[in-house]
Amino acid sequence: MPKVTIHHLEVRFRTEGDDAAVFTRLFNQHIRAWARLYEDACARDRHTGAERRLGDTGGGEGPR
Description:
Elements lengths: L18 H36 L10
């Protein structure tokens, strides 16, 4: 899974109340959801790689 680097992020929105608190709450909520999806995708990739290796025992039959 490729890594993503954000070099610059600008967010503008209007809210009632403390803007920083609202932004922090929303950012944390969505970054956790993104991280969960990312970790699930990485786990699937690891699992798929492990399954592929199960059939690749070498066994002297042809090139590895």
